[in-house]
């Protein structure tokens, strides 16, 4: 982690201020050309404020909302809040003359305080002063008064003053520049310092940032605002009308824009606004948009249009998942149009086992997977519950350097658990030589040392592929004794073909046979449980590649 962005020690009572100032320095260093004059003035102005004012500003920025009671801003390391607030008010960063809504008032003050301040209003509404605060708000909100300053709500001065933080938009933009998103919060610094999370150290500088132009940030924030409106329940039509149109050329913005477009179309589909949904899906580059559009066309009875689009998709499917869906859709469309059934090749069969176990074993094991593992486990043939962790973890350890390569736009702050372009279309292409070097170790037999050495050196460091709690050195050694390098290569190749889809769906259990250096994977299905699509795809691939896997269907003994 670059020293410019290292978290402050928690022994410092002003650690949060140090971390906030770190973000300001980082943004000025790496994104200075993206700041406007007001933002540069804010960054410079923070440094000029007294320590207490800077600390209180940081506390307010890191708390929820933009409206605060002065008497609740109590921090021992800062001292009295009013001198600090006065300094911030002089800078124009807080104010106390804003209008409060009814909701603001009820959110900010207690029932006892409101009972005194609003006594005439409560009486006029026929409300019992000893009633519930929520009932007061519900009744008053039926005819809500217009927003007004605090003295207009409370002429006799019963309520402590309220302060508005006016610089949250600037601070949110700075946070976006630092993290590249708005779902990570300032607490990342604290979690890193506590050791709760460890992150890979990747070289960071101005060339790695995800946003090249200020317009990129403006577009990202516009998409984010639309998403918040949609999640707050605003009508799809209103949000869709304001969603930025036209390709920005920035992959991070475009990914979020098309993801929101997909969600809007999906909501229209749920509301049976099928014509609108189909039109929006047609404009969407989300990976699942074409499949949803086909479903909508089928629901509308536009079978010929659906067949034309499905045939186009079948010629160049975007993923194995889409190919699987088309395998179901095309015969259905042909049947509805009285066309000959298309020729298809069934996937390779997977061996099926049937197993009947006593219910007592389920009770003892705690899960159906545990009961099956206990049934097959032997001292010379141990069974482990690994699901999506073992093969994917071996891949992540083998390819650590490739995954964490310091490429432009992949890492842009020190708190990333993986590259930002992990699910991007160019993820593999940009790292092809690095992955080839890691896979070459599988050919030469050097992979064992590389995997175990990475496990020891990087243990606990965040990774999109390695789930440390599910792995141990003995498990890795056992797996490397029994799983051929060629099978690890085949798994890695398929994982890289579609990381988002293929990180899941792997079998629940693995059984090792160390004496003969073999293994088998076991997918467990209890009564009424069916194979999911991603599981079917993995099992078909295993069968094609000669990788041993079975499906074990479990029933319970009567009584």
TrEMBL record:
Annotated VRR-NUC domain residues: 442-556
Cofactor: Mg(2+); Mn(2+)
Coiled-coil intervals: none
InterPro entries: Fan1-like, FAN1-like_WH, FAN1_SAP_bact, tRNA_endonuc-like_dom_sf, VRR_NUC
EC number: 3.1.4.1
Similarity comment: Belongs to the FAN1 family.
Protein name from the UniProt record: phosphodiesterase I
UniProt source species: Alloalcanivorax profundimaris
Lineage: Bacteria, Pseudomonadati, Pseudomonadota, Gammaproteobacteria, Oceanospirillales
């Amino acid at each position: 982690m670059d020293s410019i962005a290292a978290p402050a020690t928690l022994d410092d009572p002003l650690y949060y201020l140090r971390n906030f100032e770190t973000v300001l320095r980082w943004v000025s260093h790496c994104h200075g050309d993206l700041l406007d004059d007001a933002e540069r003035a804010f960054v410079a102005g923070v440094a000029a404020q007294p320590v207490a004012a800077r600390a209180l500003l940081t506390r307010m920025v890191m708390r929820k909302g933009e409206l605060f009671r002065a008497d609740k801003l109590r921090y021992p390391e800062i001292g009295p809040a009013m001198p600090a607030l006065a300094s911030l008010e002089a800078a124009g960063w807080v104010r106390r003359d804003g209008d409060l809504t009814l909701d603001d008032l009820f959110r900010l003050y207690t029932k006892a305080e409101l009972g005194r301040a609003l006594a005439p209003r409560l009486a006029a509404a026929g409300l019992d002063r000893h009633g519930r605060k929520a009932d007061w708000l519900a009744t008053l909100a039926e005819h809500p008064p217009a927003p007004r300053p605090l003295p207009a709500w409370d002429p006799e001065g019963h309520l402590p003053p309220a302060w508005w933080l006016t610089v949250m938009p600037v601070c949110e933009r700075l946070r976006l520049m630092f993290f590249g998103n708005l779902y990570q919060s300032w607490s990342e610094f604290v979690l890193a310092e506590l050791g709760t999370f460890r992150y890979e150290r990747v070289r960071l500088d101005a060339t790695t940032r995800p946003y090249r132009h200020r317009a990129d940030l403006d577009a990202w924030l516009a998409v984010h605002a639309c998403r918040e409106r949609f999640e707050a329940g605003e009508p799809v039509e209103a949000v869709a009308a304001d969603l930025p149109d036209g390709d920005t050329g920035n992959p991070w913005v475009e990914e979020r824009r098309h993801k929101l477009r997909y969600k809007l179309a999906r909501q229209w589909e749920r509301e049976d606004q099928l014509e609108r949904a189909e039109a929006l899906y047609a404009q969407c580059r989300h990976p699942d948009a074409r499949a949803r559009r086909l479903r909508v066309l089928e629901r509308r009875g536009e079978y010929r249009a659906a067949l034309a689009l499905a045939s186009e998709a079948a010629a160049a499917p975007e993923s194995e998942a889409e190919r699987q869906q088309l395998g179901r859709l095309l015969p259905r469309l042909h049947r509805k149009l009285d066309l000959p059934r298309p020729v298809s090749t069934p996937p390779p069969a997977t061996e099926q086992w049937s197993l009947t176990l006593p219910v007592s074993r389920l009770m003892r094991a705690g899960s159906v997977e545990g009961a099956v593992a206990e049934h097959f486990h032997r001292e010379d043939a141990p069974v482990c519950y690994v699901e999506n962790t073992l093969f994917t973890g071996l891949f992540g350890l083998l390819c650590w350097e490739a995954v964490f390569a310091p490429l432009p736009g992949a890492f842009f702050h020190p708190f990333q658990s993986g590259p930002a372009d992990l699910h991007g279309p160019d993820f593999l292409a940009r790292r092809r030589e690095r992955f080839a070097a890691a896979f070459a170790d599988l050919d030469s037999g050097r992979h064992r040392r590389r995997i175990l050495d990475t496990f020891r050196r990087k243990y606990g460091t965040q990774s999109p592929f390695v789930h440390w709690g599910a792995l141990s050195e003995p498990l890795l050694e056992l797996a490397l004794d029994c799983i051929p390098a060629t099978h690890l290569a085949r798994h890695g190749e398929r994982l890289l073909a579609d990381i988002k889809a293929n990180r899941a769906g792997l079998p629940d259990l693995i059984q090792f046979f160390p004496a003969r250096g073999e293994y088998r994977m076991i997918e467990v299905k209890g009564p009424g449980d069916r194979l999911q699509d991603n599981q079917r795809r993995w099992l078909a691939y295993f069968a094609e590649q000669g990788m041993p896997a079975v499906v074990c269907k479990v029933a319970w003994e009567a009584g």
